[in-house]
Structures are given as C-alpha cells and as structure tokens.
C-alpha cells in the first residue's frame, strides 16, 4: 500500500538547483526534444491571459517595487552587492526567493496555485522511491490530499549546478510525477539558469521546451506564464477530472475512483503501473477494481474486475473494437475447420466496457465534454514544421563502468563476482539512459486517452503454472488462441508471459490472450506500402528474432539485378508462433524441479543467460547452430532434457516455416508475408502432446523463490541481513534479470 502521508504532487516543477539523476553522468547523454518560441508555447498550451490583465499585473509589480525598466529589482540589487563584495555568496534558492514572492503577490487568494520555495525539503507522491526535490513548486491552494500531510524530510541545500543537469532533472521529476500520480494527464515545468529561462511541457504524446528567454528583458513572459497557470482550472493544469483520489473505506490509505462511461470503479490493488513511468508512450496503468454501487452510503460491488488506463494513437481502434473484429472474422479469412467460434471467449479476456475519456474542451468553452486527445490539450494547434531541437545533454553515452563487450546481451557464464556486479550496475545505467532516450522522437503522433474494464482472468502464464504437463497444456491453449486470431487475419505482435493469463477452475485450465492494443489486421488487405517497415513492437525477450533485428534472416540467395529493391520488414503469423516458442524456452530456464532449484541452480542460470542475455546464442538456438546447442544441452537438468528435446523440435518447425515463407519471392514478399499455413497449428499441437508424455511430472518452481526463502531464513537465524549488501554472484545476476524480464523492464 502506498504511503498514506503524502500531499498533492506539485502542479508544475520549477527546477534550478538540483542533483543529476543517480546512476549515470548527465553530460554523457544526448537525447533532444523539440524547441519552440514562447509565442508558440503560449498559443499551444497556456490558458489565455488578456492584455489588460497582463498590463495590470506589470503595473502592480512596478508599484510594489518588485519590477522596473531594467528588470527584477531585488535580483539586480543582489547582483550589484555581489559585484562589490567578491566573497559574498548567496544560495540559489535564497537569491530567487524575492522573485517568487513577487509572483505570488499578483496571485490573489482566488488563484488556483501558489509558488512554494522549499529547496531543502523532499516532496512526496504515490509510488516507489516517491520523494524528490525541486527548488520551487506550484501547489494547489485547495489540496486534494486525503490523509495527513507529510511535508517531506530535510536535506542539505545545494549550490549552483550546470544548466544541463537542471534540464535533465526537471525531466526526471516530471517523469516521476506523471508516473506516480494517476490523476495527471500533462504538466508544465520551468528551469532557470542565472537569467536564462525555459518553459517545459510534458504529456504522453508530446514533450517540448521553449527557447531561452531573459529573466529581466522578457519579464512579461514570466508574468504571463504565472498568471496563466495561476488562474487556470485543474483541467487546464493537466488534471484528470474523471479520476478522484479518496481515502480507502478501511482508512488504510489513498485509493482512486475512475469513471468509465456512466459507472465508477475503485482501485483495490495495482497490477502494473511501471510503463506509466515513461513519459512518452501508451503509459498503461492496470488495477484490480470493484464497481462503486453507491457513494452515500459508500457501497462496492463484490466482483473483482480489471481496469486499464492508457493512451493510444488517435487513429487506432480500441481493444474492444479489435476483439470484436477478430471474433467477427474467425474462419472468414483463413480456414481452420477445428475452431469452434462458440468457444472464442474461452481464449480471449472478456472486455465489458471500453471508452475514450471525456474532458473539458480547451478550444470551445461552450462545448460539451470532448475526447481527451492531444488535439484538445494542444488547443487545436500543431507544432511548427521542422522545429529546432534542444539537446538535453551534450555528448555521447559513456558509462561510469565501461562494458567490456558491446552489449548488455553478453553472456554471464564466465564472469567473476566483480564482473557480474558491474553488469548489474551497467543494466541500471542503460535503463536510465533509455528513459531519456525515449524522449528523442523525430515526430510526435497524437494520442487519445482510453479506459478498459475487463474480467479478472487470472495470473501471468509464468506465475500460475507449477508442473510441466500443465505448462505444456497451457501452451496448447495459447496456440489455439493464436489460431483464432490468425484465422481472422490478425497478428497479436506482443505475445509474452504477461499478456497470457491463466486460471484454474478445478481441473479445468483456462488460458486467455490479453492486451490487444498492438494487434494488427494483415489480411485480407496486405500492408499498404512495401517500402515502409512495421514499427517494432513486443516485449524484447519474447520478441521474434527477426522482429528484434527488423530484418529477414531466412531469405534465399537472390540474383542481383538492376530492378531488385530492398524488402521492407513486416510482421507475419509465424512471428506470433515464434513468441510462443520463447515462452516455452523461458519456462525451461525458470521452472525447475525443486531439488535442482534448491541444490544447484547455477547451471540453469547459465542456460538462462545464454538464451536471454546473449542475442547471438539465442539466434543460434533458433537457427539450429550445433555448437551452441551442445553448450546449451550441457546445462539442462537431467529431468528436463526430454522436454528440452521438444523445445528444439519446436524451434526447428518455426525455422522451417520462416524459410518456407521467405522462399516465396514471386509474388513479392509483401504478399508472401500474409501466407497462412493451416497445417502448422496441428503440427505444433501434436508436438506439445508428445512432450506431455515424456515431461517431468513433479512440481517445478522458480529459483528466485528458493533464493528469497533461503535469504529470509538466513536473516532470521543471524538476526542481521547485512543491510542487503551481499556480493553478487552469476546466479544473482540471472535471478535479477529474470525478474526484470518478468516485470517487462526489457520492453521499451
């Protein structure tokens, strides 16, 4: 449960004195975002301020002695004093305090926000690692906190830092706030470096910044910004009117009520909110919820459902529309006689409601509620064509501990403890780098805010199943679900453990496909352009090798002619089935007989490293590279070797169908990609049936569960777990990476 003593997150994040993001050197990153003029920023995202109101505010500041023809009086006086006293030193927050006091003076008690200058305190919000520091925050006058406020913990004030570090930090804080607070749709930021000011805008579809303007020469810009956000409505500040933070009925802490259509749902448990911690993207938050039957007296329904809150491209179908389209077209595009349309719901998570969130129109004050889209919060405008770019940090990526290989994918099998520990640190740096690099988009696509209510269909595939016959049965059910999709001309494009949900009803196992947001129809109409490749989608460790590399790997040799053109890369049916293979192999490296997991998990950890941390060896497994296969076999526990044989046969089937498909170069491969192999599903199903006969029948568990249990027992005996600061071994690295994979941290 989130800490209950947390006030509201700040309305804007004003950053001028901060520390760089932990884990990497800020000067070593080089992502860039769009840079626009103040006038463009004002037109696109700031609530309007009349000329009279701006003029009156400037006049009031002059009359109070805060402003004159040269700029901000107190700041200029301090600069003069420093010039006369060479040893005079004023902390940055103290220096700028008169500025924000002046700005507060033009914000009356009826304003929506006020500026709080608390550089030595950490503010709090929901989520892990939820404290953060900003020098000045704009806070709501009317708090929406539902519990006692915790103003934060003391920390030392810092001196001047380089501007580039400030820019990175304001992005970091915005990322944290947007990820931690479900009530936020977009937010503003401000950075100051001596007399240079930039304004920032952060949303799920657009991130941009103004060109530098001078604090003194362009004082009216800062005053306009202050009045604009100071008297803006909560909608205009980026709050979501359809989400409400309340105190849980049992007083245990804050929970959220989401409006979906004409119904309301209260969160009871987060399923995943990790992807919301990246600024740009779909940012899904998924919760278990109960329907709110009545507010007064408060009454909840008894059936647990699942709510998904996320952003999709404005021109994309919703998941419900995709699901309905698949169901409607089963066996109409590709025929599989053995499919029973009446059992469709047994293989796909049921969706009860799917809506586009409605908010106040920011372009027409008299209009009814409109869909929450990029077009709305950009006030009907668009960014200028060929905008300049602002580099967040100059230079190329370098690490505090440079890797000895070219990629984190290198094998861990021969590393010392020191080397293994270094790789864990390197992984953390790469994650931090990726978060900033995620902002470096050449163009922005408009998005629309959606919510889905679906059934609680169980747990992720890898978490639910605990014996190999059941795991193999689950793979067969997943295969049938994919057969339904493919018969309708659709591919899923994101098959992973997390998107396959399992539930046991007595002796009956149910396996259902979830998350259709990336699903795509490839038949009967093929992709429109043979020159444009598909965008890469999927969870990296279950992603087909070709998709990850964005190229075909099994093409026949072609004669070079003047008319030959490069092939664009497109996702096909075989790629979905290859993801099923990687779920199979993942289980082989993570579901061990209890004796193996308890006594000697290191060999299995090394096998895991070979297949999921080493891209070359993973490709070698799919390609049937015998030298790599021999190394892999040597690490397979004896009890699992018969199943491993069938995993290799599964890989052979996938490889053969890749080759068969790519051999069809006439007609062009753009048509061959839609080739359907009806016999393939029966072949794979038979292979899994045979595997069940020879499969190890005992209970299997994940090594990390044994490791956790052992550590807890050890801590209990010693009374001290050494603060968790233990030397990392190779298997510890694999264990951590396995958790990262299961949680999806490999998926950008």
TrEMBL record:
<dbReference type="GO" id="GO:0004672">
    <property type="term" value="F:protein kinase activity"/>
</dbReference>
<feature type="domain" description="Protein kinase">
    <location>
        <begin position="333"/>
        <end position="661"/>
    </location>
</feature>
<dbReference type="InterPro" id="IPR011009">
    <property type="entry name" value="Kinase-like_dom_sf"/>
</dbReference>
<dbReference type="InterPro" id="IPR040976">
    <property type="entry name" value="Pkinase_fungal"/>
</dbReference>
<dbReference type="GO" id="GO:0005524">
    <property type="term" value="F:ATP binding"/>
</dbReference>
<dbReference type="InterPro" id="IPR000719">
    <property type="entry name" value="Prot_kinase_dom"/>
</dbReference>
<protein>
    <recommendedName>
        <fullName>Protein kinase domain-containing protein</fullName>
    </recommendedName>
</protein>
<dbReference type="InterPro" id="IPR008266">
    <property type="entry name" value="Tyr_kinase_AS"/>
</dbReference>
<dbReference type="Pfam" id="PF17667">
    <property type="entry name" value="Pkinase_fungal"/>
</dbReference>
């Amino acid at each position: 449960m989130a800490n209950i003593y947390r006030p509201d997150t700040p309305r804007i994040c004003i950053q001028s004195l901060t520390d760089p993001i932990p884990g990497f050197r800020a000067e070593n990153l080089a992502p860039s975002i769009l840079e626009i003029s103040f006038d463009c920023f004002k037109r696109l995202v700031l609530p309007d301020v009349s000329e009279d109101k701006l003029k009156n505010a400037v006049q009031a500041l002059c009359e109070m002695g805060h402003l004159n023809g040269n700029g901000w009086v107190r700041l200029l006086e301090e600069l003069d004093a420093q010039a006369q006293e060479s040893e005079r030193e004023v902390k940055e927050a103290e220096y700028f305090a008169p500025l924000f006091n002046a700005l507060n003076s033009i914000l009356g008690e009826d304003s929506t926000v006020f500026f709080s200058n608390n550089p030595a305190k950490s503010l709090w919000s929901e989520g892990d690692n939820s404290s953060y520091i900003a020098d000045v925050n704009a806070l709501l006058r009317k708090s929406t906190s539902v519990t006692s406020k915790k103003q934060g913990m003391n920390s030392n004030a810092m001196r001047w830092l380089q501007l580039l570090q400030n820019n990175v930090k304001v992005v970091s804080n915005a990322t944290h706030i947007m990820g931690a607070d479900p009530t936020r749709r977009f937010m503003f930021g401000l950075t100051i470096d001596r007399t240079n000011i930039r304004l920032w805008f952060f949303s799920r579809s657009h991130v941009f910044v103004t060109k530098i303007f001078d604090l003194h020469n362009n004082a009216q810009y800062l005053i306009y910004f202050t009045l604009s956000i100071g008297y803006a409505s909560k909608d205009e500040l980026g709050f979501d009117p359809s989400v409400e933070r309340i105190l849980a009925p049992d007083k245990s802490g804050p929970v959220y009520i989401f409006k979906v259509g004409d119904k309301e749902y209260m969160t009871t448990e987060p399923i995943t909110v990790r992807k919301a911690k990246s600024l740009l993207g779909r940012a899904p938050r998924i919760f278990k919820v109960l329907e709110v039957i009545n507010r007064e007296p408060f009454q909840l329904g008894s059936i647990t459902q699942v709510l998904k809150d996320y952003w999709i491209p404005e021109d994309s179908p919703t998941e419900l529309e995709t699901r309905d389209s698949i169901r409607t077209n089963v066996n109409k595009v590709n025929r599989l006689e053995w499919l029973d349309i009446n059992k469709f719901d047994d293989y796909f998570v049921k969706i009860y409601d799917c809506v586009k969130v409605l908010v106040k129109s920011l372009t027409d004050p008299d209009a009814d509620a409109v869909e929450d889209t990029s077009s709305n919060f950009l006030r009907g405008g668009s960014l200028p064509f060929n905008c300049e770019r602002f580099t967040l940090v100059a230079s190329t990526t370098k690490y505090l501990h440079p890797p000895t290989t070219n990629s984190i994918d290198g094998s861990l099998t021969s590393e010392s403890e020191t080397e293994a520990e270094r790789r864990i640190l390197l992984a953390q740096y790469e994650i931090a780098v990726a978060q900033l690099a995620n902002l470096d988009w050449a163009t922005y696509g408009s998005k629309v805010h959606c919510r889905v209510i679906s059934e609680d269909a169980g747990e992720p595939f890898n978490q639910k199943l605990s014996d190999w016959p059941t795991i193999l049965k689950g793979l067969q059910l997943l295969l049938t679900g994919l057969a339904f999709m493919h018969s309708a001309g659709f591919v899923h494009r994101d098959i992973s453990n997390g998107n396959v949900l399992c539930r046991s009803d007595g002796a009956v196992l149910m396996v259902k496909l979830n998350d259709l947001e990336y699903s795509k129809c490839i038949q009967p109409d093929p992709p429109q352009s043979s020159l444009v490749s598909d965008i890469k989608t999927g969870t990296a460790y279950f992603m087909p090798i070709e998709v990850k590399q964005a190229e075909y790997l099994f093409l026949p040799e072609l004669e070079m002619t003047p008319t030959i053109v490069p092939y664009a890369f497109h996702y096909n049916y075989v790629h979905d089935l290859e993801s099923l293979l990687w779920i199979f192999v993942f289980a082989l490296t993570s579901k061990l007989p209890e004796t193996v997991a308890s006594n000697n998990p290191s060999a299995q950890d090394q096998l895991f490293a070979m297949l999921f941390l080493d891209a070359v060896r993973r490709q070698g497994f799919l390609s049937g590279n015998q030298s790599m296969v021999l190394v892999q076999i040597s690490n397979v526990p004896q009890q699992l070797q018969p199943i491993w044989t069938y995993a290799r046969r599964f890989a052979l089937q996938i490889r053969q169908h890749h080759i068969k498909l790519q051999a069809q170069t006439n007609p062009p491969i753009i048509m061959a990609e839609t080739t359907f192999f009806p016999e393939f599903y029966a072949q794979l199903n038979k292979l899994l049936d045979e595997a069940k006969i020879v499969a190890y029948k005992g209970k299997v568990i994940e090594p990390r569960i044994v490791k956790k249990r052992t550590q807890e027992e050890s801590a209990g005996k010693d009374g001290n777990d050494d603060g968790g600061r233990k030397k990392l071994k190779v298997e510890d690295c694999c264990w951590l990476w396995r958790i990262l994979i299961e949680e999806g941290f490999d998926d950008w």
